[in-house]
Amino acid sequence: xxxxxxxxxxxxxxxxxxxxxxxxxxxxxxxxxxxxxxxxxxxxxxxxxxxxxxxxxxxxxxxxxxxxxxxxxxxxxxxxxxxxxxxxxxxxxxxxxxxxxxxxxxxxxxxxxxxxxxxxxxxxxxxxxxxxxxxxxxxxxxxxxxxxxxxxxxxxxxxxxxxxxxxxxxxxxxxxxxxxxxxxxxxxxxxxxxxxxxxxxxxxxxxxxxxxxxxxxxxxxxxxxxxxxxxxxxxxxxxxxxxxxxxxxxxxxxxxxxxxxxxxxxxxxxxx
Length: 272
Hints:
This protein is of the alpha+beta class. It has helices at residues 34-44, 49-53, 68-71, 113-123, 130-138, and strands at residues 25-27, 55-59, 72-76, 79-86, 165-166, 170-171, 201-207, 230-233, 253-255, 264-265, 269-271.
């Protein structure tokens, strides 16, 4: 687990490389899709936190230009490409006027960590720990950068949905997509798991810390007992080497448990 790769972000606590031992577990082959999340909502009448708050963050270029001033209430100072859009939610990913009718097999987005936990309670599952997620993402390979090896595009072939072009100005969509894509659009890894890198970030169970692993147990490491943000893994369709090179298996980031954005989703796990 972890990496000493030159592209690692030291402040994220990606290293050092360490061996951990995990009990057997199940993990879903696919991230939770809009279709499946819709079944959960239909059965429970659940309202996501984005729906309760009345807004969520949407990437600037995905908002219709003609309605930009109408929909955008504010932007994030440190990352102005993130726009606060009133009415954006899992049902309306780019805000009012958008929908998911053609995206039923895309990963659900605009779901917070708290929303993901509620889904897991309904489905009888749980979120994977970071260690479980990373083990699953590696697909049986040892210390490779990506789920398929060390080359991002072996023989020039795109194997995940990330950004091509100049971030954040232009995504050329060379991999076939601008924004999210179907969860099975690219080949699975060695464990038969799809979309383990790129497309959308995935929530993990752990609280985030850049240094806790230095003293944590090497057997089923659970992450810190408390914190302010939860671990997210896998990167997204917005990741680019020039800015957020976190579509590597060992890469990690974090967000607060009540946060929702247009590039964050999750998948479920289950103890054996």
